Sequence to fold (109 residues):
Amino acid sequence: MINKTRLAKVVFGSTFFTAMIVPAMALAQEGASEGLETNAQIAKFAAAAVAMCVACMSAAYAQAKIGSAAAGTLAERPEVAMNMIIMMALPEVIVLLGFVIAFMISQAA
Fold:
């Protein structure tokens, strides 16, 4: 039997690793023709990628917890369905803010 904690760590680690590698490969393809001039640009794009990844992972964690609680609540009290839909939509703001921060970091001089 697989330990759930270990499985969660493996899934989270592989997802985070993939989320960091795919943009790096796209940047490497673009950089082949132009090239990145400084290490500061590389650090800037890496910081933007980390900002986006952390925002998405935290929103996914929040939605997982809210979703399981919402399913239990709706089974007992179906009249609160609209409240649960609103609660499921709130973590998406975290993703939008992460995108805005990543955009601001990548556009910084």
Q: What stands out?
A: The domain at 4-107 is CATH 1.20.20 (F1FO ATP Synthase). The chain has one domain: 4-107.
